[in-house]
Recover the amino acids of this structure.
């Protein structure tokens, strides 16, 4: 079977500090994901580190108390960090955001990798180069910070490497074991094909949704052969833990031609071939209102990770800013 369950898994954290007067956004939030599934979160309104999936309750009860204590400390650090960085930009008000994104992955072949990135107001401040384990300034204004982090005294890259390759991977493996039944469940995709007139051409859409696991192969075919040019979205998560994807192709239908959407997924005994019929759009299994799911997903994501593109400004690093970023190396 061409599409199989991957034994590659990732553990990722998104930590966000926000100064947004009147927005009703939490000042601080931390969200953890196993693969694309939200498993834990904390924010400055709940003030509790909480499981988001049932199987996370298998961890030691002391875990939640300890993680809540750490998260409260990070909430204070991020609050201070936003104002510290604002002062470097000579900003006194407005909407501002400090972000930390980091995580680790164990691949099919057993190798491990990780990443760590810091940002301010939607621009990347600096990131960890996992070849040299040194921090690389993305903006020229971050050079001083990177130099300090890479100094023999700080060795931040080495410290982060140790965390990503050991502690993070250990937790990844524990979470995968606890959630294996959920992670490896197989849910068959639902498929809807439709056509949209576009001048002299027809835009064919193949919406595939509600499937699990994530790996899927979708393409358009004409008379049994692959349609060479098509557009595809990313495979996006739904709020219920399943996934969706849409593949579109612009064609000029002619008499005697047959177009079909080919879908291969590990939950299927045989791949599906759903034929597009101009007068009768085919729906495979019961359709769902995917747009609603996307809206819910976006609303949920705002609580954990907000990305705004804003104008870059000069950034001057101080020793106090350095100590703040050290405290933000991990936020779960």
């Amino acid at each position: 079977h061409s599409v199989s369950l991957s034994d590659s898994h990732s553990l990722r954290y998104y930590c966000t500090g926000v100064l947004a007067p009147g927005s009703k956004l939490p000042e601080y939030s931390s969200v953890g994901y196993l693969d694309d599934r939200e498993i834990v979160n904390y924010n400055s309104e709940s003030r509790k580190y909480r499981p988001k999936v049932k199987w996370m309750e298998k961890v030691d009860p002391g875990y939640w108390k300890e993680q809540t204590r750490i998260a409260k400390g990070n909430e204070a650090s991020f609050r201070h960090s936003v104002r510290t960085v604002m002062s470097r930009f000579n900003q006194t008000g407005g909407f501002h955001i400090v972000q930390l994104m980091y995580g680790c992955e164990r691949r099919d072949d057993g190798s491990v990798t990780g990443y760590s990135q810091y940002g301010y107001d939607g621009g990347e401040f600096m990131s960890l180069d996992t070849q040299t384990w040194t921090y690389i300034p993305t903006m020229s204004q971050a050079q001083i910070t990177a130099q300090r982090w890479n100094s023999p005294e700080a060795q931040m890259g080495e410290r982060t490497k140790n965390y990503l390759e050991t502690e993070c991977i250990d937790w990844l493996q524990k979470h995968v074991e606890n959630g294996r039944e959920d992670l490896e469940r197989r849910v068959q995709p639902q498929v809807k094909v439709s056509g949209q007139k576009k001048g002299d051409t027809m835009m064919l859409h193949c919406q595939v949704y509600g499937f699990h696991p994530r790996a899927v192969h979708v393409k358009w075919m004409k008379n049994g052969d692959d349609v060479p040019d098509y557009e595809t979205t990313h495979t996006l998560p739904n709020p219920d833990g399943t996934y969706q994807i849409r593949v579109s192709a612009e064609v000029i239908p002619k008499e005697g031609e047959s177009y079909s959407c080919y879908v291969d997924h590990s939950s299927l005994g045989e791949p599906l071939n759903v034929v597009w019929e101009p007068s009768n759009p085919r729906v495979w299994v019961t359709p769902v209102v995917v747009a609603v799911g996307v809206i819910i997903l976006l609303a949920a994501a705002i609580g954990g990770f907000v990305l705004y593109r804003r104008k870059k400004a000069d950034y001057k690093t101080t020793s106090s800013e350095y100590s703040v970023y050290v405290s933000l190396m991990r936020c779960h």
Remarks:
- The radius of gyration is 23 Å.
- The longest helix spans residues 61-88.
- DSSP finds six helices and 18 strands in the chain.
